[in-house]
């Protein structure tokens, strides 16, 4: 047993659990929840998920679709929410997000 095993656990912020680094994008988006569309802003994006700004409170760990205009719809789930912000994890890593990020950085 290592010394780390004896340390008390501490809360982990959502940012510490990210599977990939996110890039600020500021894109309009839409979440589909049981046939209902909810507008959101995609604040940041990576191949594994997105940071969202939205007015609605959504169920966590339920299948949703995140629509990004001109790029498509991507399955995933809300993994955390706090004060109008939410973390959306894609159902699987999506390499095509790199294309979206490249397009955004080219302007």
Q: What would you say this structure looks like, in words?
A:
The chain is mainly beta and 107 residues long. It has one domain (19-101): Beta Barrel (Thrombin, subunit H), CATH 2.40.10.220. Helices cover 9% and strands 45% of the residues. It contains 1 helix and 6 strands, in the order ββββββα. It has one helix spanning 97-106; strands spanning 23-33, 36-45, 49-53, 64-68, 72-82, 85-90. The chain has a 6-stranded antiparallel barrel. A hairpin with a 2-residue loop joins strand 1 (23-33) and strand 2 (36-45).
Output the number of helix runs.
Answer: 1
- Evaluate the radius of gyration: 15 Å
- The second-level CATH architecture is Beta Barrel
Which of globular, elongated, flat, extended, rod-shaped describes the shape? globular
Architecture blueprint of SSEs:
Layout: E1 23-33, E2 36-45, E3 49-53, E4 64-68, E5 72-82, E6 85-90, H1 97-106
Q: In a nutshell, what does this entry contain?
A:
The N terminus is likely disordered. Strand 2 and strand 3 form a beta hairpin. The protein contains one helix and six strands; from the N terminus they run E-E-E-E-E-E-H.
Which key phrases capture this entry?
single chain; 107 residues; mainly beta; 6 strands; disordered N terminus
